[in-house]
Amino acid sequence: MNDSGPAPTSAPATCSCCGDALADERRIDVRFGLPDLAFELPDEARRSPGPSALLALDGGGFFVRCLLPVRLTGDTELVLGAWVEVEEETFRHAAEVWDDEAAYPELVVRGRLANAVQPWGEDVLGAEFTGRIADPGELPYLVEGHGEAAARLLGETWDRDYVLARFPHPLPVAVRTDLGDGWSAERTAGFAARFEDGVDHFGARDRSVALTTFQDNEPGRSAEDFLPLLVGETPPVPAGQEHTERLEGGGIRYAFWFTPEDTGRSRHELTAYVVEPDGAAAGLYCSYEEAEQHAWARHVWRSLRRGYGGGAASGA
Q1: Where are the domains of the chain?
Q2: pLDDT tens by residue, 31-81
Q3: Are strands 61-72 and 76-86 parallel, antiparallel or unpaired?
């Protein structure tokens, strides 16, 4: 699930970790801080006529931040605060009317998308859109796409989890995330994500998850025999703090949890695996501060499954 390039940002508004109010789950706002090109130029190349949504880059062009609405499954809308490269004349006109209550609602912006928005990436970078003012208190909305890629982006409904999993910053909704090899797991609302050394990490202030996948290289070995190799040597598990389930066809689910006493701070751990009959397996490690969060850790383990269905960014 790792994606390179400048990271967009958003501010979830009722985070499951800190209790702050989350934004409406039906609308998710994500902001790109700069056009992609800006990261290739020195900071001194950036110029603004005043409004933060207008940016000129010496040797790079002229840009207006606009709102790009994308329809997602689950009756959800993703609104991207993305940059559009425009002609200098459009840029100067926008600067003139930006704070004019009478003239701003008539502003029309036409230009090329200046952020390689994932998961569409290079397919939409440079795609041409027209933006208009839908609300005088907001940025211009991109309401018309010129060309196939732009028209599809605006016109189709996209798989919610496949799209949102590409944004690593905390989101106001839980997102099922592709772990590779056909496995997926739920990333909790308010958790950031990163991919490092072959491991997916989800994290918040007081909780974290690390997930990875495996494949048994010995044909014919049972899931029950493969599981101990995955678990390895562990500290003694207290009575009542492990759970095993047999899956249909010969698979197995196993989890154990305990509270280390040598960390110097309150912390609890859950380690769990799911092993399929064909030797495919996935495991996770959860760390959390409060004992009451054990139910959350088990929920994440329960969400770990094979058969992720969001394998392509295609319309629904």
Answers
A1: 27-160, 174-306
A2: 999 999 999 999 999 999 999 999 999 999 999 999 999 999 999 999 999
A3: antiparallel
Tens digits of per-residue pLDDT, 150-194? 999 999 999 999 999 999 999 999 999 999 999 999 999 999 999
Per DSSP, what are the bridge partners of residue 208? 203, 287
For residues 136 and 230, what is the distance between their CA atoms, to the nearest angstrom? 58
Instruction: Name the nearest CA neighbour of 250 among 214, 271, 281, 278.
Output: 278
For CA atoms 222, 224, 230, 233, the dihedral sign is: negative
CA distances (Å), origin 146, targets 52, 129, 251: 26, 6, 50
Among candidates 84, 88, 159, which has minimal Cα distance to 311? 159
Mark residue 92 as left, alpha or beta (left: phi above 0; alpha: psi -120 to 50; beta: remaining): alpha
CATH class of 174-306: alpha beta
